[in-house]
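Record now logged underneath.
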Amino acid sequence: MKKWKYVSLTAVLGSALLLGACAGTSNEEAENSGNSAQQKENGEGQITGSVMGDGSSTVAPITEALVEEYAAVQPNVQVSVGVSGTGGGFEKFIAGETDFSNASRDIKEEEAAALKDAGIEYTKFEIAYDGITVVVNSENDWATDLTIDQLKKIWIEDGTKKKWSDIDPSWPDEEIVYYAPGTDSGTFDYFDEIILDGEDLVRSAQLSEDDNVIVQGVVSDKNAIGFFGYAYYLENKDKLKAVSVNGVEPTNETIENGEYIPLSRSLYVFVNDGKVKENKAFFDFMKFSLENAGDMAEAVGYVRLPDEKYEEGLKRLEELK
């Protein structure tokens, strides 16, 4: 397989990610993907078809890496993945428009009920761990370690124009500038549940489903603060600072062992059970994904699950077949 190392995340944040066939791979790549060069020459194990997904921009970098690797193994399968945010992805999943839906949070009760009403049975697969990372401008040398209470005071709307000095009198008497994921984002939903406790996010926040917009916003203003998935911080760590939360810095280790609480979370792919059964290409892509999700998660900056969790996922997928 290709040696991925914090691949660029920008390309996956357009209206859709469309990766088809990649002609010609090395014998080593083919072997690593479970197909020998001779098998490919003879056309053995090759399938055709199409697969459609949508959903979380946080999960998108993992999917992008998987789709590119899969195209080298099954060049006649077209995998198309949109990036509408977790909520937007579930809307398409409920409408039957997609085979799978990427999500950076668990499914909501109303979404599960809508799927039931639509007659769609589904299965949830956990694919990686993430830590929502709060970031500030690289020139910010005051708000480098925040408590949960301080995060609440910063982010919850209270009818005032907040300054850093309102959070701590020793901090600058400058107005805070906010950047955050859009309301269709699972990252927004998770932050809302854990930090906002259902209260309104500050109304002055600039919202975007494109995490790179948040990066650029924070980079451009020394009084800015934002949050997004851990991988986006790793890709941009030379431009901005990650904030420690309750004294704990987000790292692969602290995210995996649960020390980075309460902002550690799981990332998911939800699949349409019926489409797994009727679409050989979809089953094959999901099998490939679960076999390689750990490596791809690490490659793009997230944290892999224990191997047994991927094995459990593969068993559930086989049962769906």
Summary: The chain is about 40% helix and 20% strand.
